[in-house]
Amino acid sequence: MKRIVLFASGSGSNVENIEHYFRENPEVSISCVLSNKRDAKVFERCNRLNLNALCFNKHSFYGSDCVLNILKSLNPDLIVLAGFLWKIPDNLISSYPNKIINIHPALLPKYGGKGMYGMHVHEAVKNNNEAETGITIHFVNENYDEGAIIKQAKVDLNPIDTPEMIAEKVHHLEYEHFPKVIEQVLMGT
Ligand code: GRF
Fold first, then answer.
1. Is 149 strand, coil or helix?
2. Can you tell me the distance from the alpha carbon of 172 to that of 179, in angstroms, rounded to the nearest whole number?
3. What would the pLDDT profile of 33-87 be if each residue is shown by its tens digit?
4. 82 CA distance to ligand 1 centroid (A)?
5. Ligand 1 neighbourhood includes 13 CB (under 6 angstroms)
């Protein structure tokens, strides 16, 4: 049995899609969803889906080994950041080398780094009149959005696409590719 721990800060539609993908797979379980935001919609989804979920604060994450110790007790084969907005601290990165992956809603190295999250990314893509955008799934290292790329997928943009329409196109790519990539990486662990 392979165990996944998910981190999410927002709506959690990727969490729900990942749960749906692995629901019938007896070889993979989602041990817990961890979030830094106690009013995040992801908690409603976890309630409905009967997923374990925990909320933590800054001190648990950056000022102590609390989250690390929770992770150790969960013993994950893979940690998946699915819309998680805080930078991962070094104690976690060094404890889980090549076992933390992230999804970024653009084609890195473009539109990455500090401040480039959520709608900021799609607005920047729109402002630059990009003809395409996409997703990047990558390993997490100590620098924002700079770990080794595992998979990128692209979608064409139309000049009339609004940032909201771009976000929707990108979400579709995420739903299509993220669970499959998680499965591939898990099989290699
Ligand atoms: C996704 O677009 C993901 O790429 C980004 O945050 C968004 C999360 O969406 N990092 P959701 O919370 O899974 O709906």
1. strand
2. 12
3. 999 999 999 999 999 999 999 999 999 999 999 999 999 999 999 999 999 999 9
4. 6
5. yes
The domains of the chain are located at: 2-96
Tokens 């770990």, residue located:
147
Q: Check if 112 has its Cβ closer than 6 Å to any atom of ligand 1.
A: no
Q: 11 CB under 6 A from ligand 1?
A: yes
Summarize pLDDT for 108-153 with one digit per residue, the tens: 999 998 889 999 999 999 999 999 999 999 999 887 778 999 999 9
Instruction: For ligand 1, pick from 6, 9, 14, 176 the residue to mutate: most ligand atoms within 8 Å of CB.
Output: 14
Pure H helices in 103-157: 118-127
Pocket lining: 6 vs ligand 1, CB cutoff 6 Å? no
Say what the pTM is.
0.96
Q: Give the largest Cα separation in the chain, rounded.
A: 49
CATH of 2-96, picked from 1.10.10.10, 3.40.50.170, 3.40.50.2300, 1.10.3730.10, is 3.40.50.170
Gap between the Cα atoms of 157 and 175, Å rounded: 18
